[in-house]
Amino acid sequence: MQAGTLSTFLKRGAIWGFIVLELIFFSVAGEFLSLSDKAFMDAGNMLLLLKQTAPLGIIAMGMTIIMINGNIDLSVGATFALCAIVLLDSLTWPIFAGLGDGVIPVAWALALLTGIALGALNGLIVWKTGVDAFIVTLGSMLGYRGLVFMYNGEQPTSHLNWTLVDFAEAQWLGLHTATWFLLFVTVAIWFLMNRTVHGRNAYAIGDNRTAAVNAGIRVGPHMMINFMIIGFLAALSAVVFYSESGSVNPNDGELYELWVITAVVLGGTKLTGGSGSIISTFGGVLAIQLLRKGLAHIGTNTETVNLVIGLILIAVLFLDRQLNLKGKEELKV
Amino acid sequence: MAGLTKEQIGGILARQGILVAFALFMIGFSIANARFLDPDNIMGVVRSSAILGVMALGVTFVVISGNLDLSVGSMMSFSTIVVLDLHDKIGPTLAIPAMFAMTLCLGALIGFLVGYLKLNSLIVTLGMLSAIHGLTLTYSGGKNMDIADKAGTWFGVFGQGDALGIPVPILIFVLLAAGLGILLAKTPFGRKVYAVGGNRTAATFSGIRQARVVFSCYLISAFCVATAGLIQAGRSLGSQNTVGQGLELEVLAAVILGGASLMGGSGTIFKTAIGVLILGFIQNGLLLVGLQFYAQYVVTWIIIILAVWLDIAAKRGRLWSPIA
Amino acid sequence: MIDRAPVLRLEHIVKTFPGVRALDDVSLSVLPGEVHALMGENGAGKSTLMKVLGGIYQPDAGQIVVDEKPVVMASPLEAKARGIVFIHQELSLAGELTVAENIYLGELPRKRFGLVDWDTLYSRTDAILEKLKVGFDARTLVGSLSIANQQMVEIARALTVDARAVIFDEPTASLTDAEKVVLFDVIEDLKAHGVGIIYISHRMEEIFRITDRITVLRDGTHQGTVNTAETDEEAVTQLMIGRKLDLSRNVSHHEIGDVALEVRGLSCGHLFKDISFEVYRGEVVGFYGLVGAGRTEIAETLFGLRDPSDGKILLDGKEVRIASPAEAIARGISLVPEDRKGQGLILGMNCRDNITLPQIDDLKAGPFVDEGSEIAIFDKYRDRLDIRTPGWKQLVGNLSGGNQQKIVIGKWLAMHPSVLILDEPTRGIDVGSKSEIHNLIRELAAQGYAVIVISSEMPEVLHVSDRIIAMYCGRIMRTFTSDEVNEENLIQAISGIGTENGNSTA
Fold first, then answer.
1. Residue B203 sits in a domain of what CATH number?
2. What digits encode the pLDDT tens for the residues C163-175?
3. What sections of the protein cross the membrane (chain A) (predicted)?
4. Among A79, A96, A171, C454, which is least packed by CB within 10 angstroms?
5. Is B88 exposed, middle or buried (CB count within 10 Å of its CB: 0-12, 13-18, 19+)?
6. Is B156 a member of any domain?
7. Does the residue B21 lie in any domain?
8. Which residue intervals of chain A are DSSP H helices?
9. Category of B64 on φ-ψ map: left (φ > 0), alpha (ψ -120 to 50) or beta
């Protein structure tokens, strides 16, 4: 076994260990505390959990590649809401009235294109102005949210299309549509990051940007593509979620960026870039969703979830630091 | 412009760009609508900017010291809810110091984690954002908090009162800005904040106890948040749990607009105050010229990007980034 | 010598930075199949020259000729495209990627749809690695390799392109003897294929073993190019050191006072072990050794930046524990650190604020900073050290290296320390400032300061020190007085030859 492999294994495995711990804890604690008679690890419950993981999970996959690339995207929540509005509103546009249910793919395409365009705009600004992605997306978080509100004021935008609802509520091989989307996205992004030139270059850029530039890798286009991907995924998340719910409030998606970043960091992706794993991010979102559901299961107020997740995030950061301390003789700076 | 080279003009724009932009906005809006420069209108804008402004003063310290604070929004919700709750339980005179003490404890916790344990401030305050939000909800049981006897309390003075003909929120903002401005610009502590943000290693090599400085900055930020919570609570005498939600990023926007670099080491209280006022006047001006309220977000977005872009463009001497 | 046109010529290169003429009319040519050594002390201009060649800096004058065609190296990429390959001293690898991905960084073999052609990638890489006889394979993560093996990855990278010239920058600094043999084989192999090689190293033994010609730089000027076979170590050293600066040996013997600092058996993990010495008032003690010998780490420990694992520090005869720089400063120790920009200065702050930073808590008028006394302090040290700046408001980042270093020294002199430690005080600054700083160090000793100077430049140590402590691998090998030291016994001591802890001052 090579040096470093064990600690890498421990780190990669940590999130799954945590999930197992959660499952055991909530199953046991549920026996004593649960308000319902159902076991926590009930199959239906777990399937539902996967489905509920999907909206954040899909975005988290995008955030992982953005962060591996050495950037961050705070605008995903606003992008999510704006794409949801485009989806629901375009279903009712008169020009598509003649299409019948044929409007569905058109509306989906419009929403997804909106997401790609918003992401591309972020990416282009980061690339061409050289302003830090944190500031660029902080700005567009406000800006995109402003567009959401300008669209329909503080009113919700609603349209229920029953064909869509049926599609979204369908189960195939036991899994819900949303779950399939999440699984598909996870596999696709894993493939992108581990098997394609773009993915490997994205790792290289985040890991050692100078080396990447000196080797002739064009940093800008890679960053831009990744921002387009996260825009697309935020839109896809909205499409999956709102096809079923049929109503979007202008505040929807607020704080999503924070939840998603939390999940990605829990999954072990470094803020400084260059390191991170898609599968671990999947574990990260699963862990958060489990926590939410588990705490509800044992009768804790749902409010406690935020508290627990925040503390866990800080604890993970602390543990990571302790593990990486080099020893007593280290320079105290 | 005789006597000024292109570089000099660029330099002035880079250094004083925020003031130039501010002046242009004021002129533009006042031409578009005469009511804009009406003293009542101006007073109204400043008054409604006070909460954001007070919080931005504290975050300025944190940002100059080279860190971030994303927790101020949910911390402000916490302060507001706590002081409203305690108001009815132990009376306003005790509730206020109790709320300040609790908020400062949260600030001290963050300061300890970032300063002494040297954890990444973005993640720590992100975690605290969530944790404090949860704390607030747990505290309030998820319900809105209201003062029972709204007519019979003097507590509203912090949000609604007037002193010397000036609304109290404005007075608090101005006094706090003056005090913190002097602290930052004129005292040894202020100098150390710039040093730690400018180069943490070199500051340590100069005998500055950087952990203590960072810790103090988070305490100052928490103090400002508590003050903002007091104004918020006094203004409405009742509140939702999420009253400060999203403010952390608006506050950060104001600080960045004021020219503080997220890398640390630069920025001033005065410029942050200007940044806050710009945000306030844009909102107001756009409403007066007939645009809807939410257009301000889009305009703010564009202004933030332009401000930071021009700033770094002036520093690197070229408009477009060298990224291939 | 091979009678063919050079693969690479650098002609009359001039490069100036604000305040420093880094390269002044430097020329260098490399023949096909030649190993050409580039030598010179730190700051002589070697790395600047290589950055010009690599397209990182643009020369102010002169030209680069590759295969008899003048070229403009606009970027590192262009240098690479023209077959100029660098093996960097500081590694430029991505630790989370595999060896193969690093070697083919930027040019991963592709299949359809932008997929990486892993089979081709790995088989090509393994073929190269086999040639290098390394103990890892193409699939290994670079981050899990030792530094030496990472170096081999860098070297492997050079073998993937059709190189015309390969530049090795201190390639053996972190290699074991066995790995060196492999490296030299690789160089032989490159030679046989007609590739030109520039080999930068301080190690004479290697230079004379593998190179064909030697070019020596000093203070940015070309001192000469000689055939290795026709010269010897002494002649090369002579060229490198020169006598342009007044670097005569220190012979002054002024009053030496009491012991200011005494260190007994100080250790810090594997960094240094069992260090004992003392410094008297009015004396300059030089620390000499190779990079990594532990000198800087001792200074950092004395300054409270590292916790010693064992041993005692005594100031004025009293044992002290120094847990932080703030405590060190309070006890009268000052450190002018090795990394001027990273550790010494806050580049975005003005000159005055940098100079008064360590004592800012004491410069108060009421609760406020007393700017009047700050300016007075600045003026005093600007005059005393002849710091050239338009005024105190100037940002330190805009000053030349020499003036920046004077700001750092001024900042610590203003603390009136009883023990002043200077770590590489003249690294990377111009000749004029260099000799000013040397004079200042002697002057300070004459005034009764206890001074420690850490330097990697032998002439400097010889010039300023009353005593010299030679270190090797974290241990003191020998302490010399200025009467008994010479270049030969000093070199022997820092190379690990000689008696350990030989103390001749007793």
1. 1.10.3470
2. 889 998 877 766 7
3. 12-33, 53-72, 79-100, 106-127, 134-152, 172-193, 224-243, 258-291, 303-319
4. A171
5. middle
6. yes
7. no
8. 5-33, 43-68, 76-90, 103-129, 133-152, 162-169, 177-195, 197-207, 209-214, 219-245, 256-266, 278-297, 304-324
9. alpha
Q: Are strands C333-336 and C283-289 parallel, antiparallel or unpaired?
A: unpaired
Structural domain boundaries in chain A = 34-316
> Taking CB atoms and an 8 Å limit, are A214 and C77 in contact across chains?
yes
CB contact under 8 A, C325 and B188: no
Q: Can you give the pLDDT at residue C429?
A: 72
Of A197, A211, A216, the CB nearest to C93: A211
Higher pLDDT, A161 or A192: A192
- B138-196: per-residue pLDDT in tens? 898 888 888 888 888 888 889 888 888 889 999 999 999 999 999 999 999 999 999 99
Closest CA to B229 of B123, B40, B81: B81
To the nearest whole angstrom, how far is the Cα of A193 from the nearest Cα of chain C? Answer: 10
The tokens 């060229």 sit on which residue? Answer: C239
Identify the band that residue C89 occupies on the pLDDT scale cut at 50, 70 and 90: low
| C398: helix, strand or coil | helix
Q: φ and ψ at A185, to 5 degrees? A: -65, -40
Residue whose pair of structure tokens reads 């409403």 in the numeric block: B287
**How far apart, in whole angstroms, are the C-alpha atoms of residue A202 and residue C327?**
45
For residue C321, give how far its alpha carbon lies from the nearest alpha carbon of chain B (Å).
16
How confident is the model at residue C30, as a pLDDT? Answer: 93
Query: Percentage of chain B surpassing pLDDT 70?
Result: 94
**Rounded Cα gap, residues C128 and C103, in angstroms:** 10
Alpha-carbon gap, residue C358 to C344, rounded angstroms? 11
Tens digit of pLDDT for each residue in C111-122? 988 899 999 999
Beta bridge partners, C17, equal C20
Flag if B187 and C337 touch (Cβ within 8 Å): no
Q: What is the CA radius of gyration of chain B?
A: 20
**For position A307, what pLDDT does the model report?**
87
**Token pair for B78:** 């916490």
Of B186, B188, B203, the CB nearest to C346: B203
Tally the domains of chain B: 1
Please tell me what DSSP assigns to residue C389: -
pLDDT of A182 > 70? The answer is yes
Which one is the CATH code of A34-316: 3.20.20, 1.10.3470, 1.20.1260, 1.20.120?
1.10.3470
CA distances from B207 to B258, C325, C328, C412 (A): 30, 5, 8, 11
Determine whether the interchain pair C343/B266 forms a contact, defined as Cβ–Cβ distance below 8 Å: no
Say what the pLDDT of residue A123 is.
97
Q: Is residue B309 part of a domain?
A: yes
Query: What is the arithmetic mean of pLDDT over A222-228?
Result: 97
DSSP per position, B48-107 = HHHHHHHHHHHHHHHHHTT-----HHHHHHHHHHHHHHHHHHH-HHHHHHHHHHHHHHHH
Ordered by where they begin, the domains of chain C are 8-241 (3.40.50.300), 245-332+419-506 (3.40.50.300), 338-416 (no CATH)
Q: Which ipTM score applies to this complex?
A: 0.85
Is C95 close to A328, i.e. CB distance below 8 A?
Answer: no
Residue B261: inside a domain, yes or no?
A: yes
Range of the domain at B122: 43-316
Q: How far apart are CA A320 and CA A265, in angstroms?
A: 11
List, edge to edge, every strand of the sheet that includes C475-481.
Answer: C333-336, C419-423, C450-455, C283-289, C467-472, C475-481, C502-503
d(CA C361, CA B190): 11
pLDDT in tens, C211-222: 999 999 888 889
Provide CB contacts within 8 A for B248, sequence distance 6+.
Answer: B69, B70, B71, B72, B73, B74, B129
Q: Which amino acid is at C208?
A: F
Rounded distance between C-alpha atoms, residue C280 and residue C500, angstroms: 22
Count of all residues that appear for chain C in the document: 506
